[in-house]
């Protein structure tokens, strides 16, 4: 055990920086694990070592910011650093690589180590890859879900029911939470909705809500706000609810994998941790979504329901049509405008409104607020009487936004380009993945005004030269890049349209 | 494309550090990939982003040392930074996760990206994990081997044969290269031996050789030295020969995996890249090694031979007894002392001498230097006439060491503890893994003097109180730790010895 003088380093990452000579005398190399202890508060964390010759003098330990968020050291504090052992969870990950089944304790050990930074991102990736190739069975999924819940904060509401809702994603423009949450809260039910930011999409619900209000709150703030106004729409990543899940999602991102077991656990851990006992899950089905066929969708639904039973939650799943975008807008501001318009009274787009009412209706029926078969109609009434808008304003207000905001106040990206139909005919194809890619190239979700506005959807007859879709961007170079890529991606196809023209090939 | 002022950061890692606002304006988050271009030399590298508020001001890009080793920027240079695309190799890794077979181009793309830092350690781990669970077939192994060779430096000797030798490891005390290389060089053959440092072991050959001389040389220095004195023993990691292999090994380390396909490729890529055409491979077989049975050993031998044929190398494999240590010493200095003593004329330990002579003999026969069946005898003669010692001194000298060094000049760790037999009986068990673990706890391989010296080997009759083995350490706290753990590990068992005594359980 050697004592060092702390030097907090403002780099937003985990780890410590040791002088090369100090590292050698502790017996560690770059990338090795050390135990770092702050004797003034007794906090001990594991960290991975970087080395330097000059930035940390001998006797000084540099502590990167995220590690110091836990360690709470100040410059000059006496900090103990020693070689850390190999965490037992590495064995369990190896067991999963070798097709073993993990028991409750082994799973909990892995997830604890994930949350405590005891295993590296690469080690976590090994676990994710192994669980993807050697899928988790339902017992393992239950262990994983419980471990995710237990290693984070949990909300305990004084009274039930608590409703929650989740879409498993893959469909662009899926802004329905902006309607479903106010609808359910307007009925008198409680819905503490934690959402994600976009990982592979063009805008997660949290990215959308952030156009209107703050989304970063603690678990207890989520509880208090929900008690007060009936619902919230916040970013789950800020709550410390099921924090392991966020770590896992980050590592899955490069490969765009969403292993079944981890997806089940991810969704249900968040629902369980916020205290929900009635859960509606939207499973978009279609060739271009995560769930290609209705059979696959039913199977997944049964798994959600079974996992729910194991965790004392009632789950209903809605298989929805997911092969084209929900509504006409893709990208944070564009989607928020569309949602606000509907709350303000617009009766279009039908796909968006009907889907939202159906899902809200299921929750209303599950809770007993509406009789079987009358949930959607009750939701329709809450919408058309303005109760949902009123509730949404309360939610915006409690989350620190401006409750007087109107759809017309929000302006999407100032750089725009209208793609016109190159020929007359029916719109025969809309490719979700290409639409998302294009919106991302245009800057979504980071650039809130970036995205795509569709002017026609699949099946519509369109004339040559009529607008097919518009690309929006906050920055002109982003728009340029989107235009270049758009020619290659061709996300919307009109019957009879040339797919390529050699040698000068242009889609539009 | 945005231009930044360079600030070289002395942290021994890859990556760049951007001000958070700059990162946002480029459109990247922590952990995202950027392309970094130094316009003064045209070099472009991929790097992963860390962010800061204060360490890099807006308009400044911090460049960590290993990334700057390639980029060669100086403080204040104008550096371009832009969001980098997703490398295609991620798709190929995903394909392997999905049980696909990788073709030559896909494999080369992955390995190129590994060497160029275009994929992260976590992404590489996904590839390794996927290749471990979905094993590479021989075509894929050949692609991998060729890709490793092509993405590094290669040595082309003017004349053949070029001999090389490899032990696949897992046996403690396997210092035979210190004999085999001088023996082969003394016969007039050339052997440009690149070795590893210990990853999971108590001392790699490079760690051992570093007790006597420098081991970090470039590929062209390896070639020149080999041309001059017939052989070298260097650290492969410094040569840029098959550099992808080192990256892979680092990521395998936490799980102690050594997937068959990667192991084959790793060994043979290094042999191919140094220009070897005659290769002897030592496959230690035994319950406690990487290869548990003779059948497994033969299968692995056939794979080495087949891969050799595909790469125009003649390969012979020697299955050796690997269940107990080679010789009596484990740990850098202790092993070097034992090897030097043998070169100086000692006729013990027999296991070490016979194994070395057999392996050298195979190479002598393959090359035609010795007639079939006479190689070991010829090697014995080179040893007993002092030719091997003479050659070893030349090798030490050309690598910058002191050629006059004698075994008696080297002193192992000053902190020692002799473990005595707790009872009389035969030595019935020596556990390789426990011996290695104990040597590592005592400080090996970083502490060159640390390790274990066995006083009796399996099968020997020993009396109560006689020395069983000694633990050496350079630092007293390391010795203490080894003593504590040794009680639990009990690496050497004597017939009739109590394995535990409840409640005060002590092995020794």
Structure described in brief:
Two copies of one chain form a homodimer. Chain A is of the alpha/beta class.
Layout of strands and helices, then pairs:
Two copies of one chain form a homodimer.
Chain A: E1 2-9, E2 16-19, H1 20-26, E3 33-38, E4 43-52, E5 60-64, H2 65-71, E6 78-83, H3 89-97, H4 104-115, H5 121-133, H6 138-150, E7 163-167, H7 177-186, E8 191-195, H8 205-209, H9 219-229, E9 231-235, H10 243-252, H11 260-273, E10 278-285, H12 294-310, E11 314-321, E12 329-330, H13 332-343, H14 350-367, H15 375-384, H16 387-398, E13 415-420, E14 425-430, H17 432-441, E15 451-454, E16 461-462, E17 467-473, H18 476-489, E18 492-494
Parallel strand pairs in A: 1-5, 2-4, 7-10, 8-9, 10-11
Antiparallel strand pairs in A: 1-6, 2-5, 3-4, 3-6, 12-15, 13-17, 14-16, 14-18, 15-17
Helix pairs in contact in A: 3-4, 3-5, 4-6, 5-10, 6-11, 7-14, 7-16, 11-12, 14-15, 17-18
């Amino acid at each position: 055990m050697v004592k060092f003088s702390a030097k907090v380093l403002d780099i937003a990452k985990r780890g410590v920086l040791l002088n090369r000579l100090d590292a050698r005398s502790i017996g560690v190399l770059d990338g090795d694990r050390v135990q770092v202890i702050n004797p003034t508060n007794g906090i001990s964390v594991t960290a991975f070592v970087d080395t330097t010759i000059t930035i940390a003098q001998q006797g000084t330990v540099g502590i990167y910011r995220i590690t110091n968020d836990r360690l709470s050291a100040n410059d000059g504090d006496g900090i103990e650093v020693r070689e850390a052992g190999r965490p037992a969870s590495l064995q369990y990950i190896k067991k999963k690589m070798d097709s073993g089944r993990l028991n409750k304790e082994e799973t909990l050990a892995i997830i604890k180590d994930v949350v405590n930074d005891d295993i590296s991102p690469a080690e976590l990736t090994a676990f994710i890859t192994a669980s993807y190739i050697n899928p988790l069975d339902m017992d393992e999924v239950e262990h994983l879900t419980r471990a995710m819940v237990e290693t984070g904060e949990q909300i305990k509401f004084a009274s039930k029911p608590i409703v929650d809702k989740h879409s498993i994603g893959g469909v662009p423009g899926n802004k329905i939470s902006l309607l479903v949450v106010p609808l359910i809260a307007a009925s008198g039910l409680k819905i503490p909705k934690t959402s994600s930011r976009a990982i592979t999409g063009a805008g997660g619900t949290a990215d959308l809500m952030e156009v209107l209000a703050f989304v970063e709150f603690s678990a207890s703030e989520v509880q208090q706000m929900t008690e007060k106004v009936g619902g919230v729409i916040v970013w789950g990543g800020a709550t410390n609810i099921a924090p392991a899940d966020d770590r896992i999602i980050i590592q899955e991102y490069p490969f765009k994998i969403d292993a079944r077991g981890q997806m089940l656990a991810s969704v249900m851990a968040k629902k369980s941790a916020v205290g929900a006992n009635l859960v509606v899950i939207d499973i978009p089905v279609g060739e271009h979504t995560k769930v290609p066929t209705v059979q696959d969708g039913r199977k997944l639904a049964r798994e959600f329901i079974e996992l729910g039973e194991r965790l004392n939650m009632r789950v209903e799943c809605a298989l929805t049509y997911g092969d084209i975008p929900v509504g006409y807008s893709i990208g944070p501001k564009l989607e928020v405008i569309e949602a606000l318009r509907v709350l303000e009274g617009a009766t279009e787009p039908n796909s968006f409104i009907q889907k939202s009412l159906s899902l809200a209706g299921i929750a209303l029926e599950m809770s007993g607020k509406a009789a079987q078969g009358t949930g959607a109609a009750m939701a329709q009434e809450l919408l058309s009487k303005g109760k949902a808008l009123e509730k949404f304003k309360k939610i915006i207000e409690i989350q620190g936004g401006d409750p007087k905001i109107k759809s017309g106040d929000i302006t999407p990206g100032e750089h725009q380009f209208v793609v016109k139909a190159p020929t007359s005919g029916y719109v025969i194809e809309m490719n979700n993945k290409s639409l998302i890619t294009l919106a991302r190239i245009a800057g979504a979700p980071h650039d809130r005004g970036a995205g795509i506005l569709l002017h026609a959807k699949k099946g519509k007859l369109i004339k040559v030269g009529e607008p097919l879709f518009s690309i929006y961007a906050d920055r002109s170079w982003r728009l340029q890049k989107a235009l270049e890529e758009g020619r290659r991606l061709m996300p919307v196809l009109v019957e009879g349209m040339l797919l390529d023209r050699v040698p000068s090939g242009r889609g539009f």
